[in-house]
Amino acid sequence: MTTSFCRALEPQAGEVSLLLVEDREISRYNRRFLNRTGPTNVLAFSMQEGPYGEVNPHLWGDIVVSTETAAREAREAGLPLVDRVAALIAHGWLHLQGYDHERSPEEERLMELRTGEIVERMGKEQRRDSYMTKARLAVNVDHVATLRQARRGCEPDPVLAAGMAELAGAEGIIVHLREDRRHIQDRDLRLLKETVQTKLNLEMGAAEEIIRIALKVKPDFVTLVPEKRQELTTEGGLEIVKQQKNLAQVISRFHRARIAVSLFIDADPAQIQASRDVGADIVELHTGHYANARSEKEAVKLFERIREGAEQAAGLGLKVSAGHGLNYVNTKRFAGVAEIEEYSIGHSIMARAIYVGLDQAVREMIGLIEQL
């Protein structure tokens, strides 16, 4: 939590110490330093005040939080303890910056506003951290469901395929629940939520029906994609710039449910900036145009655009993944693009699995990606 807190503050270079104590300990600090009795929720001791305040401009001070008091306040407010502690840390930080809610009602309101802003940013940083730690390959099992739906039967089962992919080393499972249910079915999503041991990524259009299903099932994160009934597969990135207000509202609904949101977009600077502006946690850069390039010159140009997009997105604080059309050959070009933390691959793995088996197909792709 402290790492995400520091990123949320975006402070100047400096040092802050954080101490989590019980009521008895914070009561001792109150009595010794403030001549007060009893516990309080948070105390802040600035190292920038007094006669020695300018000795070390990089030493901000100390924040002391009583976890016992925070727990009581969290229960009374119906909040998770981590949210209450985050607010108290933010409150203490503002005191170190010179804010004082005891000076005037106006400053008290300003501190409440600034505390809320910091906690919101902190929550976003935590969602990013929880979304992706070490994951490198996420396997899309839609094509297993496509084969099943060709006969409207019960095999092959995408849920079983997901388990096999995880056993082979995949660190994420992807499914796309379309409005027309052409492959993945509601039953698949429910079972995958119960059985996936890594990360479950639900690709989806922003249709109200699918949004409600996602909020009920609660995958680890969702990826919003464009969706057309007549297309065979997703043809391009989501248009963010022209629908920022609507997307911001949708993303906010998922964030309130503690679900991180990825946006599947083309590597266009305006779309990347807009993704950050609407509150996305992750962007998945569309690699389909690169994968379908008709010449080496065109492939190099399109790859460079993706590389620059990944750099821009990471610079804006977004997590970055990439996918669509990637296979055992064209993925190799991504060697050295450190900003891309996850590769979403499905069709090429399932195609190879016909010849060598799913376990080996997944392991081969993991081996390739680990060399990037």
Largest sheet: 8 strands, parallel, barrel
Overall, the morphology is: elongated
Number of helices: 15
How large is the radius of gyration?
A: 24 Å
% residues in beta strands: 15-25%
User: Helix share of residues?
Assistant: 40-55%
Q: Regions with pLDDT < 50 over 5+ consecutive residues?
A: 131-135
User: What is the spatial order of strands in the main beta sheet?
Assistant: 4-5-6-7-8-9-10-11
Total strand segments: 11
Q: Please, what is the CATH homologous superfamily of the largest domain?
A: Aldolase class I
The class by helix and strand makeup works out as alpha/beta
Q: How many separate structural domains?
A: 2
CATH topology grouping of the largest domain: TIM Barrel
Structural overview:
The chain has two domains: 2-129, Metalloproteases ("zincins"), catalytic domain (Collagenase (Catalytic Domain)), CATH 3.40.390.30; 132-370, Aldolase class I (TIM Barrel), CATH 3.20.20. Helices cover 49% and strands 16% of the residues. The chain has 15 helices and eleven strands. It has helices spanning 2-9, 23-34, 67-77, 81-96, 105-131, 142-149, 158-167, 186-195, 208-217, 244-256, 269-277, 288-291, 296-315, 347-356, 358-370, and strands spanning 15-21, 42-46, 59-66, 137-140, 173-176, 200-204, 221-224, 260-265, 282-286, 319-323, 340-345. The longest helix has 27 residues, at 105-131. The protein is elongated and about 75 Å long.
